[in-house]
Design goal:
By secondary structure, this protein is α/β, with parallel strands linked by helices. It has nine helices and ten strands. Helix 2 runs parallel beside helix 7. The longest helix is centred in the C-terminal third of the chain and has 19 residues. The chain is globular.
């Protein structure tokens, strides 16, 4: 029995090794930014999954302001430079982690995927909340470190335990981007050869620990719920508010459709 078990184990290891795939990802931005910490957490969690699938992710980093085309996917924490990076990357997906400008979405770049919400999305979320709650001083954001629903509590805890700081918008964007790319490559490593961008753009059930399934619009903007934050930094609720027409698409129009 022991001999049979050993034979089966060797066969399993050999099978996994024969299908092993390694993909390099690249981060462009400040070395001390929370977005990079989020990316690192997402890569680490993806690689735990990849241990059982024979798929491994590695992460290269480039300084803020540099342009690189290394990697099957690029994570850009570079406000003002996303368009330049997207052009240089060719058909590789560039996931925008920090540039919120509406102008960038209106450019309809074919390989830019905007994980961070746009300015228009945050304005619409705040307007919806104020209409239902007049007189409140609030703002909208992608994430809140005190969010607890939809496994957000666990994500906040994992991030804080590893980095000793609360998870903010950019950290969440980095984590989501890395996990989304990682999950896509784990499901089908062949997408990493030439189909990763298409797979990301067509995905319709992405999980950002926010409840609603998320997906990318034609503009490249990620559809997502936002949190409403009070003047003192407290978490008040979410948007779209209940009853908002259009659901997630009530937050920021898509200029590319």
């Amino acid at each position: 029995m022991r001999a049979l078990l050993a034979t089966c184990t060797v066969a399993l290891v050999a099978t996994v090794a024969s299908f092993a795939a390694e993909f390099e990802l690249a981060y462009i931005g400040p070395a001390d930014g929370s977005a990079l910490q989020g990316v690192r957490l997402g890569v680490e969690e993806s690689n735990r999954q990849g241990e059982f699938l024979g798929v491994q992710l590695t992460l290269a980093t480039a300084g803020d302001g540099e342009v690189t085309v290394r990697g099957v996917a690029l994570f850009a924490d570079t406000p003002g430079a996303v368009e330049e990076i997207a052009v240089a990357a060719g058909g590789r997906p560039v996931l925008n982690l920090s540039d919120t400008s509406d102008r960038l979405r209106a450019a309809c770049l074919p390989n830019a995927l905007h994980v961070i919400p746009s300015d228009a999305m945050m304005r619409d979320a705040a307007d919806q909340w104020r209409a239902a709650n007049p007189g409140q001083e609030i703002s909208a954001a992608a994430w809140h470190h005190r969010a607890v629903k939809f496994a957000a509590r666990d994500l906040n805890r994992r991030y804080t335990e590893q980095f000793g700081a609360p998870m903010d918008d950019r950290a969440w964007a980095g984590w989501f981007a890395a996990r989304t790319v990682g999950d896509t490559l784990m499901r089908d490593p062949e997408t990493g050869r030439d189909g990763l961008l298409k797979a990301l753009k067509e995905a319709d059930g992405l999980d950002g620990q926010k409840g609603d399934a998320q997906s990318f619009r034609a503009s490249g903007q990620l559809r997502q719920p936002l949190v409403i934050v009070g003047a003192g930094g407290e978490l008040l609720g979410e948007a779209p508010v209940r009853g908002a027409q259009g659901g997630l698409d009530s937050l920021g129009a898509s200029p590319c459709e």
